[in-house]
Every structure is written in structure tokens, then in C-alpha cells.
Amino acid sequence: MHPPPSISDPMDNSPYKFANKRMRIPEYADPEKIKYMIADYYALIKEIDTWVGTILAKIDQLGLTDNTMLIFTSDHGEMLGSHGMREKNIFYEESARVPLMVRFPGRIKPGTVVPDKPVSHIDLFPTILDYLEAGKHDSDGESLRKFIDGSGKDEETFAVSEWNPSEPGVPHFMIRSKRWKFMCPCTADSKVMNALYDLENDPHEMNNLLGNNSDKKRYAAEGEMMKNELVQWLEK
């Protein structure tokens, strides 16, 4: 059992340095104690695996497999010691990134993998309607079918996440592309720093390229690009 690579992150240039009682609950930054918490969490995941298997077996037993679209996902992840933090209300990958698996025999080829396409749960509703040929309905998301069948493989995608705007001291918006992740507060006068992470070269998000970074001007263009994409998404 290994602790998260970012467990000892000092977070001196992170908007989450004082979030989630991080400074008052040091147990989540303890490499030995976190191993027990991870073991408990993995046990819960194993229980989910067991019950998912039970559901799939029942669908087979009822003869519904070939005519049933199955979607497996989660509403959030868990920090579980990453950056010395706990809980789920964080824009870092451990909290915000979740699994998404879809099975639909005869419509989706088994083993299909869609890499490097950040998507959102708001895309599930139009995706279901698309595969069920139920017509279109007003939605903030878009069908993922073109990415699953490969016709949209050259399109760049962005995933947006939001947090309670009444909570001070933390970012309220996040937008992620294949490479970049940008976080910011919801008001121009907020004291919360903006954050930009290069996920290709910094997958554990330990180096905020904005904020107090002495070299932040070098990444100003990428930060503005991501902020503009966020604004366009919100306006749309």
C-alpha cells in the first residue's frame, strides 16, 4: 500500500492550502496513517464491484443484456491523502475525475476506449437519448456518441466543474482540457488565487503555474486561453 505521491505537497502556491481543515487534520498528510484509510476505501470499492456483478448477472438471467444500455460512473472521487487532504469538494484530479464506462451490445464495440477526451455528467442525458433514438431535448451537454464511434476523435473537448459560490477562500470554477486545468473564483475582487496546471508534465498538480509563481508571465497566454474557454462555456 503506497501513499499518494502528492501527500507531502506544501501547497505554498495552491488555492487549497487552507481548505477542508487541511492544517487542522494532519492525519491525512501522514504516510503511515493514510495507508489504513486507503485500505478501508479499497474494501468499499470491492463491495461495489461485488454488487455490480450481482446486477449484471441478474440482467443476464432476465435475458435483457442485449437490449440494455449500462452506464457506470460516480458523482465524485476522494482526495484520500493527496496533497494531505480529505473529502471530495476539490478540483484536483483525485476528487473531480471519475470513471465513465458504457455498455450497449450491438451499438458500442466491446473494448472501445476513448482517450484524452474530458467530458462531463451533463453529457450523459443527450448520449442516452442519442443511442435510444429518442430524439433531441434541450441540454447543456452533448452526445458522446461521436467520440465513442470515433467520428469526433479530432475534436478538442473541455470539462467544466463548479463549486458553491457562497463558500469563500476556494476556487468556484474549473475547466479542464486534455493538457491544461484552470481554476478561479467567481468574483473579480476575490483574494483566491487563480491556478493553472500542466497535466502532461505535472500529473499530480503540485506546480501551479500562476498564483505566486515567479515565472507566471510565461504561462499567462495559456491561463487566458482556458479562462476564455470557461467564459464561452458559461455564456453558452
Q: Point out poorly predicted stretches.
A: none
Number of helices: 5
> What would you report as the Rg, rounded to the nearest angstrom?
20 Å
Give me the strand/helix succession. HEHEHHEEEEH
Name the shape in a single word.
Answer: globular
What percent strand? 5-15%
Strand-helix topology:
Layout: H1 31-61, E1 70-73, H2 93-96, E2 100-103, H3 124-131, H4 145-148, E3 159-162, E4 173-176, E5 180-184, E6 195-198, H5 220-235
Task: Describe this protein's structure.
The protein has 236 residues and is of the alpha+beta class. It contains 5 helices and 6 strands. It has helices spanning 31-61, 93-96, 124-131, 145-148, 220-235; strands at 70-73, 100-103, 159-162, 173-176, 180-184, 195-198. The protein has a 4-stranded antiparallel sheet with strand order 3-4-5-6, with helices on one face. A two-stranded antiparallel sheet has the order 1-2. The protein is globular. The relative contact order is 0.13.
